[in-house]
Amino acid sequence: AFFWLLSLLAASLLWFVSRALSGPGDAPLPLGAAAAVLLQELGRFACFKLLKKADEGLATLSEDGRSPISLRQMAYVSGLSFGVISGLFSIVNILADSAGPGTVGIHGDSPYYFITSAFLTMALVLLHTFWGVIFFDACERRRAGGLGLVVGGHLLASGLTLLNPRYEASLGPIFILTLCTGLWAFGSAGGSFRSVLECLSCK
């Protein structure tokens, strides 16, 4: 969560600089969501490097020479913390709007604003969790393709939110992306169809 907050701070500084460089009547330089996504992924990579060092340190201190926490567990916790803090920041302005004044939809706005925002935030938390698992696995196995797909998926999800308030054009594709990314993360974590069947049969 701390690394995500650092990336948010860096994105805010970039936005402030772009506003300062543009004229009084000009639009700011087109940094926006893409720069924020790239900074978040840089923060995720820095988190991986730090946890990798911590994992090596824990292994040297343990009696059997192995770390008590696996890298997959660290990936899951890191992704979940990225998702939770990202979800909190994305929903806080919406909760502030819900305090009033007025009623959503009274001036022609969508009456589904709050419910779709809740579903988008849920998808965002899940996506960050899945991206964390995939990202750490790709870094560990040195697979540049996996890293590129994570960054591309993050850029796609952020870009789809720009289609709002056309929620039918953003919500559906984001949930399809969440499902596909979840299956990919399940496979990256060592899951298989056989393991699902064994779990359901309580073996």
From TrEMBL:
Keywords: Membrane, Notch signaling pathway, Signal, Transmembrane, Transmembrane helix. Pfam families: Aph-1. InterPro entries: Aph-1. It is found in: Membrane. One of its GO terms (cellular component) is gamma-secretase complex. GO terms for biological process: Notch signaling pathway; protein processing. Residues 1-22 form the signal peptide. It is a multi-pass membrane protein. The chain crosses the membrane at residues 71-92, 112-134, 146-163, 169-187. Its main location: membrane. Component of the gamma-secretase complex. PANTHER family: GAMMA-SECRETASE SUBUNIT APH-1. Potential subunit of the gamma-secretase complex, an endoprotease complex that catalyzes the intramembrane cleavage of integral proteins such as Notch receptors. Belongs to the APH-1 family. This is Gamma-secretase subunit APH-1. It comes from Pteruthius melanotis.
